[in-house]
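Before relying on records like the one below, remember that each one covers exactly one chain. Contacts with other chains, cofactors or solvent are not represented anywhere in the record.
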Amino acid sequence: MNLAKVSSARQITVPMDIYKFLGLRPGDKLLFTEKKNGEVSIRNASTTAIFNAQKSFRGIAEKNGLENDESIMQMVREVRYGEGEK
């Protein structure tokens, strides 16, 4: 269990093991989420955003026939240059 004290300016210092566990770096933002049972979870906002984006895009590549790096590059060329490869 870790303990942090709130300063008069409402600031806290994140304990080092939690800092490392969350993969934090100077300037990162923390995401506080209130749960129905009264608990609050704290997460690295950047990591959470990446996970949410990955979840949103899950399955899109397969639906569009993108199976490997070459098929992705082919799609990029088609978008850049039109229907055929240039």
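Helices lie at 16-21, 45-57, 60-63, 69-81.
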